[in-house]
Amino acid sequence: MTRPVIAFLTDFGTQDHYVGAMRGVALGIAPEATLVDITHEIPPQDVLTGALELASAFAYFPDGTVFLCVVDPGVGSARRAIAAAVGPFFFVAPDNGLLTLVFRECSPSAVVELREQRYARPTISRTFEGRDRFAPAAAWLAAGTSLAAFGPAVRDWTTIEVPAPRVEGDELLGEVLHVDRFGNLVTNIDRETFQTFVGGGRPDIAVAGQPVPRLVETYSDGHHGAIAALFGSSDRLEIASPGGSAAQRLGLARGAPVIVTLC
After folding, report:
1. Which residue, 91, 100, 148, 212, could crosslink 205 as a Cys pair with Cβ 3.0–4.6 Å?
2. Percent over 90 (pLDDT), the chain
3. Would you tell me how many other CB atoms lie within 10 Å of the CB of residue 129?
4. Do β-strands 228-231 and 214-215 pair in parallel, antiparallel, or remain unpaired?
5. CB neighbours (10 Å) of residue 157?
6. Residues near 135 by Cβ (< 8 Å), separated by ≥ 6?
7. Would you put residue 26 in left (φ > 0), alpha (ψ -120 to 50) or beta?
8. Contact status, residue 9 vs residue 105, Cβ threshold 8 Å
9. Does the predicted model carry a pTM greater than 0.90?
10. What architecture does CATH give domain 166-262?
C-alpha cells in the first residue's frame, strides 16, 4: 500500500515550535504518512504569495497528496476552515483565498467546511488552528476519511484578486507578483500570453520604465550583473540579474509595472 503524503505550506518559519507541533499532531493520527515541506517561508500573513507558491508546486506531487496550507491572518475569527478535493488531490486551508490559483487551474469537485469536532483536537486554540483544526483534518484525510464527513458543502468560497496580464492597444501590460529569494522579479505574464502577443515579432520589455535589454533561455545566458528576462520554472516571465539580485539592482518589488511592446 502506498504511504499517504501530507505536504505543508505555511508562513510559520522554522524558528519556533509551530511547524513541529503540527507535524506531531499529523503523525499521531496518520503515523504511516510521509510529511513533506513545500515551504514555511511565506512572508507573514501574505496570502497572495502563499497562493502563488502553492500553485507552482502542487501538480508535482503524487496523486492522493493532502496539502496542509496555513497562511492565516484571520486566525480565530469568523472566517471558515475548509477542505477541498481538486483532481487527485486534497487541500486543507483557511477560507481566505489561499486556494484561489489552485481552484483557477483546476475547479474543485467538492469543498466542505471543517465543522465535525471528532476530526479536530478536543480544544481548539484561537491563535493556533493550524495545530488544532487543520493538521488533524489533513491527517484524517490522509488516513482515508471521506471528505463529506468533515462538514457541510461550501459553494461560496473566498477568492483573492490576482492581477492578470492584459493587452491594451499595442502593449502587453503586466506586473511583478513576487520576488523570490534570488531577487528575481516574477511577473504575472505567462508564456502563452506572451507568445500569443509577440507572434513572430521581437519584444521590447521594460519594468517600471527601465529597459530589459535581453530575453534569454536561462540565467547563465545573461551577462553577470546585467538585467535580462526569461521564463522560469513556473512559466512566468521573470526579470533577473545573473549572479545578483534584480530586485536590489533595480530597486523594485511586488507591483512594479511591466510593459511588453513590439520593436
Report:
1. 212
2. 94
3. 22
4. parallel
5. 18
6. 22, 23, 25, 26, 68
7. alpha
8. no
9. yes
10. Beta Barrel (2.40)
What are the boundaries of each domain within the chain? 5-150, 166-262
Alpha helix segments (H runs only) across the chain: 18-29, 47-57, 100-105, 129, 135-142, 191-198, 246-250
Cα dihedral: 137, 138, 140, 145 (round 10)? 100
How deeply is 3 buried, as exposed, middle or buried, from its count of CB atoms within 10 A (0-12, 13-18, 19+)? exposed
* Alpha carbon distance 190, 101 (integer Å): 14
pLDDT in tens, 42-56: 999 999 999 999 999
Residue 161 has pLDDT above 90, yes or no: yes
- Would you give the DSSP letter of residue 175? E
**Contact yes or no for 197/212 (Cβ under 8 A):** no
- Based on its alpha-carbon atoms, the radius of gyration of the chain, rounded to whole angstroms, reads 20
47-100 pLDDT tens trace: 999 999 999 999 999 999 999 999 999 998 999 999 999 999 999 999 999 999
pLDDT at 137 over 90: yes
Tell whether domain 5-150 is in CATH 3.40.50.10790.
yes
In sequence order, the 6+-apart residues with CB closer than 8 A to the CB of 68 are: 6, 7, 8, 9, 22, 26, 92, 93, 130, 134, 135, 138
Q: How far is CA 113 from CA 47, 94, 108, in A?
A: 19, 10, 14
- Contacts for 162 with CB less than 8 Å, ≥ 6 apart: 48, 51, 52, 100, 101, 104, 177, 188
